[in-house]
Each structure stands twice: as structure tokens, then as C-alpha cells.
Write a structure and sequence with these properties.
Mean pLDDT: 96
Number of domains: 3
Oligomer: single chain
Number of strands: 17
Helix content: 40-55%
Strand order of the largest sheet: 2-1-3-8-7-6
CATH topology of the largest domain: Molybdenum Cofactor Biosythetic Enzyme, Chain A
Shape: globular
């Protein structure tokens, strides 16, 4: 099933907004077995959208549109689609009722402009959007599905999950055609080249399937691509390949698909009835944010301290002023004392301390930009490691968080 993604909006076209919607949609539909053949972005201009629809309908089974469903003059998607399919806009009683309920819950009334959100093409299927005022709309003409969704990411994702994905899954099953699905295994603590050496020659066990190595700041993703007409055949092949990868690299695999390293760490901490607190300097709270991104993390993450100055390190964590004077803030001694200090302060099982030179300035011959010390202290033992990253401040901070999570995962897994 060939899918094309059409993003509508000048703000995306001129680079004011990064097109995260297209990346998310492409990932979701690819996982269920669709083949994404094109991404395109068009301006808020009716002729451009019409020309794009004409071109893509000839080669695609599904067109997924985002953007242009709002209540202002530059929101063109509904009227363009109505004209394109020789339809007219009519008021949906169901959606007007939703608008009144939605507005009343926020202490507001439905204005004339808001009421325009209830206008939908008469022959389109209305796709409910429980968290917004713009519904999705779906046309099906000549075996081509055309879906328009809001550009607001959370609203689009809700419509995709509730309506679009189930529909596409049903169509894929009905067609019984051969398709490719992708599955991802997640690793940490090993470089891409070392992981490739550990796994060996993929052609020896892949058959017609594929394997890709995709590195990021927290590790390397192993993306398995399996092609078959039957879902059960795809699942058997996936399990066979995953078993081989676990045999060869299992000690570095922490999860699969969308799972994050902080989620994996949290699961192990919860299972062991253990807790963690963090002391951060150069990462500025990013590690704590990674933990609090996980729903339910209060069961195992007790809190953190952001100690950016030497004075704060001494006052909040009991770091030795003598060590700060003698070896400096970016050192093994200070990282350990930060981790141990925050552990004692919060009464947790483990403490993590991060101190480093994120850049772009502040480095020296002995401690160049990118030097980061990370320490994990537990009730019995501790580990403190020096990391040498690069010159980019943002990347250094993200890599520091990934390294800290990887160190903790090795301890608690």
C-alpha cells in the first residue's frame, strides 16, 4: 500500500516549523506495513494543493494531509478538498455539539469563526478529534483514501491512532499483499562498529529480511525489516532474527521500538524497589527531565539538584572545597562527591553526578571542551567514568545524559 504525506502550510515551507508530523506519520504507517513513497510540503495556496493531489492520486493508495484545517482565511484544506471532489461544505450537527461542549469546558462560547470548524464536506467521513476543535475528514474515491488532519501534533496523532491506523491495518489484511514491516531493537554502551563486529555478517542469517544500524546519542538502534504477505509469517521471522541478535549482543540490548533508555532504567529500578536522585552541572537538568518524561517515574525518581557553580556544589552537596581548589569542578573526585551527596540528600539507592565542560568556551589543555565526568554511586559500590565528547554544546549535553543513563542501566539491569 503506497502512501504519500502532504504537509500544508507556509510556516513549514519556509522553515519556521520543523516538519515533525511527517516523520511521525511515516514511522507509524511504515511499521504497520505501508510503503511511504513521498513527503511533500505545499504553500497555503489552492492551486498548489490541487496540483499535488492530481499528481499523487495516480501513484498512491493513500494520501495523508496535515494542516490547513483551522478557522482563519489561510486555512484552505477543507474548501480545496470540497472543490476537488465536487462536494460542498455543510454543517455537521455532531461536530457543532462537540464545539459547544469543548468551549463550555473552557468557559468560552462558540463564536461565528469557531462555528466554521463544524463545516465539513457533505460526502466526507468526519474523524473525531477529542482534544481540539478541528475534525479530521476522510474521502474515499476510486480506491484512493484521502485523509486531512489538523497540523497540531497531538491532535493529528490522536486521529491517526483512533481512525487512520485501524483503517489502514484492515485494508492491508483485506488485500493480503506482501508488505514490509520494521521492528527496532535498542542498544546502549557499545559503538556502532563494535556492535557490527559482535553481530557478524548479517547475510548469514537474514535471508530476505534486512538489518540496519542506526546510531544516536543513547546508543545504536537495530532496525529489522521483514517482508511477507501473512502477519504471522512476518512475526515468526522477526522473532527468529531477534533471537539471533539477542544471542550475540543481548548484554547491550535494553528495549525495543519506542522505548527510551530512561524507561528501561525505570522499569528495572521499580522491579528492584530501588530509587535514584541526580546532581547535574553541565547538563542543566536534562537528566532529571529524561526521568520525569516517564509516566509514573515518581515511584523511583526522587529528585535532583542543579549545582552549576562551585559554591552550589559545596553548599548543596557537600563537595570538598579543597578538591575544587586542587583538581577543579570537572574531575573524578567532584563527580563522585556530587553523586554521593545527592544520594545522601534524598535518601535514595543510587545517586548520579555529572560535571563537565559543555562548551563552546571554558576548556583547557588538560580539560578540553567535551570533557565530562559522570559518577553513579550505590549502597555498595560506585563507578566514575571520564567521557570525551566534541565541541558542540547541545550535543555534549545530550550525549552526557545518554552516557549517564547507560551507566545506570548496566548497574540495575
Amino acid at each position: 500500500m503506497n502512501v504519500a504525506l502532504i504537509t500544508i502550510g507556509d510556516e513549514v515551507l519556509i522553515g519556521q516549523i520543523i516538519n515533525g508530523n511527517a516523520a511521525w506519520i511515516a514511522d507509524v504507517v511504515t511499521r504497520i506495513g505501508c510503503r511511504v513513497v513521498e513527503h511533500c510540503t505545499v504553500a497555503d495556496q489552492a492551486p498548489q494543493l490541487t496540483q499535488t493531489l492530481d499528481r499523487l492520486r495516480d501513484t498512491c493508495d493513500v494520501l495523508l494531509l496535515t494542516g490547513g484545517l483551522g478557522p482563519t482565511h489561510d486555512d484552505i484544506t477543507k474548501p480545496v478538498l470540497a472543490d476537488y471532489f465536487n462536494d460542498v461544505l455543510v454543517e455537521s450537527d455532531e461536530w457543532m455539539s462537540h464545539l459547544h461542549i469543548w468551549m463550555a469546558a473552557r468557559g468560552r462560547e462558540v463564536t461565528q469563526r469557531n462555528a466554521g470548524q463544524a463545516l465539513v464536506p457533505s460526502t466526507a467521513r468526519v474523524l473525531t478529534n477529542p482534544i481540539g476543535t478541528a475534525p479530521g475528514i476522510l474521502f474515499e474515491r476510486d480506491d484512493v483514501i484521502v485523509v486531512a488532519m489538523p497540523g497540531v501534533p497531538d491532535e493529528m496523532k490522536g486521529i491517526m491512532r483512533d481512525h487512520v491506523v485501524p483503517l489502514l491495518e484492515d485494508r492491508i489484511r483485506e488485500q493480503g499483499a506482501e508488505c514490509t514491516q520494521y521492528y527496532t531493537m535498542l542498544t546502549t554502551g557499545i559503538a556502532e562498529s563494535s556492535l557490527a563486529d559482535l553481530i557478524g555478517e548479517p547475510s548469514e542469517f537474514l535471508g530476505s529480511s534486512t538489518l540496519a544500524f542506526l546510531p544516536n546519542y543513547q546508543g545504536v538502534r537495530l532496525r529489522i525489516g521483514v517482508t511477507a504477505a501473512d502477519h504471522h509469517d512476518r512475526e515468526r521471522e522477526r522473532m527468529r532474527i531477534a533471537s539471533i541478535l539477542r544471542e550475540r549482543a543481548g548484554r547491550f540490548i535494553f528495549g525495543h521500538d519506542d522505548q527510551t533508555l530512561s524507561e528501561a532504567v525505570g522499569l528495572h529500578l521499580k522491579e528492584r524497589n530501588e530509587t535514584i536522585a541526580v546532581a547535574e552541572s553541565c547538563t542543566g537538568g536534562l537528566l532529571g527531565a529524561a526521568f520525569t518524561d516517564v509516566p509514573g517515574s515518581s515511584a523511583w525518581f526522587h529528585g535532583g539538584v542543579l549545582t552549576y557553580t562551585n559554591e552550589a556544589k559545596v553548599r548543596e552537596l557537600g563537595v570538598s572545597q579543597t578538591d575544587l581548589n586542587n583538581v577543579g569542578a570537572v574531575s573524578e573526585e567532584v563527580a563522585y562527591q556530587m553523586a554521593n551527596g545527592v544520594r545522601l540528600k534524598f535518601g535514595t539507592t543510587y545517586g548520579i553526578g555529572i560535571t563537565g565542560v559543555a562548551g563552546p568556551d571554558g576548556g583547557s589543555k588538560d580539560k578540553p571542551v567535551g570533557t565530562v565526568w559522570i559518577s553513579v554511586v550505590g549502597p555498595v559500590d560506585h563507578i566514575t567514568i571520564k567521557h570525551s565528547f566534541g565541541n558542540n554544546r547541545r550535543i555534549n549535553r545530550e550525549r552526557s545524559v545518554g552516557a549517564a543513563l547507560g551507566m545506570l542501566w548496566k548497574i540495575v539491569r
